[in-house]
Design a protein that fits this description.
ten-stranded parallel beta sheet, elongated, 5 helices, single chain, about 260 residues, about 35% helix, alpha/beta
Length: about 260
């Protein structure tokens, strides 16, 4: 199984490189044609086209398994149509369509069975029932479960994880923010947090003796490690692996 996953990851990387190369060559050709005096549609040089290209690249890079490429491409197409056909006056419909699209993503997102599959894939067994917070408001509290699911859509979520045998978590932030305080948590071995961010941000506070491995990929994003404690001794058995994707957003890692 591991060899199959490694082969799929390698194939995905090769495909994303080819797509990135094609996009770069295409942009170069278009710029060359413009400098040679060739008449080209004005919309080729607008920012919505850049969003569409970034979304397509992100989709190929993640085998179209993340939601961020849909959001980026959709926003780009919307404003591209708005610029190309200004008589439609689409701007007032942008936010209602965004909310509808988010609702569709909720309907089509993986079920609890898929989430349990994710848990078995990374741990070999099911654990306690997941806990989930989501919505358009703000929400905060404590969570003692060994796994969690947090969704922030146009909202701010604050969660204190106090499990002493933390296993895994999943955080989705779309036009929102999530603050996860794990300073009182502990783990018995390596654990995973899967992050999906689009036009949002996630802040994670971890104990100073944990090691953090960043495997998050994305576009126009940042993953910033602000931890610094010269006196802390890293425990090699406590490794937090961050996986997932981030587009037009950021992930911040801190320790107290």
């Amino acid at each position: 199984m591991e060899n199959i996953n490694n082969n799929n990851n390698e194939q995905s990387r090769e495909t994303s490189k080819i797509v990135a190369g094609v996009i770069i060559v295409g942009v170069g050709i278009v710029l060359l044609m413009r400098n040679m005096g060739v008449l080209l549609p004005y919309w080729l040089f607008t920012w919505p086209v850049i969003l569409i290209l970034v979304g397509i690249y992100s989709g190929f890079k993640h085998n179209f398994k993340n939601n961020s490429w849909l959001i980026i491409t959709g926003v780009g197409i919307f404003f591209w149509i708005s610029k190309f056909i200004p008589s439609l006056h689409l701007e007032p419909f942008f936010w209602p369509l965004v909310i509808i699209a988010i609702g569709i993503i909720y309907i089509l997102k993986p079920s609890k069975k898929s989430w349990n599959g994710f848990k078995r894939l990374n741990d070999g067994k099911d654990n306690r029932a997941d806990s989930s917070w989501k919505g358009f408001g703000s929400d905060e509290g404590f969570d003692s479960n060994d796994d969690f699911k947090i969704t922030s859509v146009f909202s701010g979520v604050k969660r204190n994880i106090i499990s002493k045998n933390f296993k895994r978590g999943q955080v989705t932030s779309v036009f929102g923010g999530a603050e996860i305080d794990m300073s009182q948590a502990d783990m018995m071995g390596p654990s995973i947090i899967k992050v999906e961010v689009a036009f949002g941000g996630v802040s994670i506070v971890v104990p100073s003796n944990w090691s953090v491995q960043n495997d998050i990929q994305g576009v126009f994003h940042g993953v910033e490690d602000k931890r610094y404690n010269a006196t802390a001794t890293i425990d090699p058995n406590k490794v937090l692996v961050l996986k997932g994707s981030c587009a037009f957003g950021g992930v911040e890692i801190k320790s107290y």
